[in-house]
Design brief:
CATH superfamily: GIY-YIG endonuclease
Number of domains: 1
Strand content: 15-25%
Number of helices: 5
Radius of gyration: 13 Å
Oligomer: single chain
Shape: globular
Mean pLDDT: 94
Helix content: 40-55%
Structural class: alpha+beta
Number of strands: 3
Length: 97
């Protein structure tokens, strides 16, 4: 049985610094970013607001999508966020339910 996967985009603020990641446990991974437990880019740049999520039935599909999205221009990432989340709301509370 395949493991599910998620591609997510974090932002420092509306229109701010963006980070793209992939995980099989979205709630746990975002919590780690928010708590500063993830060393590197997100902690250094204060990128901890969940603004975009894509769910996949298979983690391998999620990894492939993340790799493709990492090659996207910034504008395309912003368009994806605004297509799903035009207010740039922090979606973390939505995944906690």
């Amino acid at each position: 049985m395949p493991k599910p996967g998620y591609v997510y985009l974090l932002s420092s603020q509306r229109g701010g610094t963006l980070y793209i990641g992939v995980t099989s446990n979205l709630a746990q991974r975002i919590w780690q970013h928010r708590e500063g437990l993830v060393d590197g880019f997100t902690g250094k740049h204060g990128v901890n607001r969940l603004v975009y999520i894509e769910a996949f039935d298979d983690i391998e599909a999620a990894i492939a999508r993340e790799k493709a999205m990492k090659k996207w221009r910034r504008r395309w990432k912003i368009d994806a966020i605004e297509g799903q989340n035009p207010e740039w709301r922090d979606l973390y509370g939505d995944i906690q339910r």
